[in-house]
């Protein structure tokens, strides 16, 4: 068996000439160099030129529907758990704010949340059920779940109370992401 050492050769040097041509097809970019000596490919999601604007990327009707749906679902969720919340925290056992004040405050919060999620979904190109569910889960784990586990650990918030809030946030994020992510 004859094994000869391999000769080392430097990488090909780019010859002077016209710049490489780029062809764009279905989100793939193919670069063909002079003399077909260098070929490269990369993938990137399709992007429309120009800035992202609310009228082009984010559906305001979907944002409104998502905010109201999340508000109604959250109200029903907390209404069903009212007795448990009163046992877990004095904030729910004592005197409450007016229904109008609470409703207005929660609607504004849900609109802000829906706008942020709609912008993320539009920027990421989320238009199907699978990606919408994945985005919702990622957002829930990254923000409410992390914040609530921190409050349990550092501020000694009861696990059951944090669990109730985590369930509400999961419900909100799922509803909003599904409504704004899967729009016609």
TrEMBL record:
Domain of life: Bacteria
UniProt cross-references to InterPro entries, sorted A to Z: DUF1761
Pfam family, one: DUF1761
Disordered: annotated segments: 1-53
Assigned keywords, A-Z: Membrane, Transmembrane, Transmembrane helix
Transmembrane segments: 61-86, 107-126, 132-153, 160-182
Protein name in UniProt: DUF1761 domain-containing protein
UniProt source species: Pseudonocardia abyssalis
Lineage of producing organism: Bacteria, Bacillati, Actinomycetota, Actinomycetes, Pseudonocardiales
